[in-house]
Protein: Putative flippase GtrA (Transmembrane translocase of bactoprenol-linked glucose)
Organism: Maribacter aquivivus
Amino acid sequence: MKIDLRKSAFLKFLVVGGFGTIINISCYTIFVKYGIHFIIASLLAFVIAVTSNYYFNSIWTFKNRAVHKTKLKKYFEFISISSLNLVTNLIILSISLWFLNKNISFGDFLSNNLSFLLEGDAVFYNKIVSQVIGIGFATVLNYLGNKFITFKEDTQNTFIKP
């Protein structure tokens, strides 16, 4: 089975989201590394990544959809849906961090094996892993919300053939 990336909105959304995740995790890691509280770091990283995601989703993933809406309206809808999913992300982030810190051996494993990438202790790595888990959970909800609300297909200009 061959999948055409040019035609699959979900795959395009995943590609854009992949880059957004890289932006999010990079910003989040930098913020946490410099002592910003993990929730504030997550919020700042979110704003940066979601703005990037909106731009690329609007010009590539959902290029010819919701043309009757202004860019500003689509941006605010995108931000609103993404904000709801941020709540999901923060809940999962907090639960994951609590769980991983309870079982610190996972963070110790990462600290011992990934120290060549980043300096950090077990708690630091648990924060990064928890952010990735939270993003993963929010991705599907984010796609569905934006496909059916922000970039809802225009039905105003279509007609039914007899």
Remarks:
- The chain has a mean pLDDT of 80.
- The chain has one domain: 9-150.
- Residues 9-150 form one domain.
- Residues 30 and 36 are 9 Å apart (CA to CA).
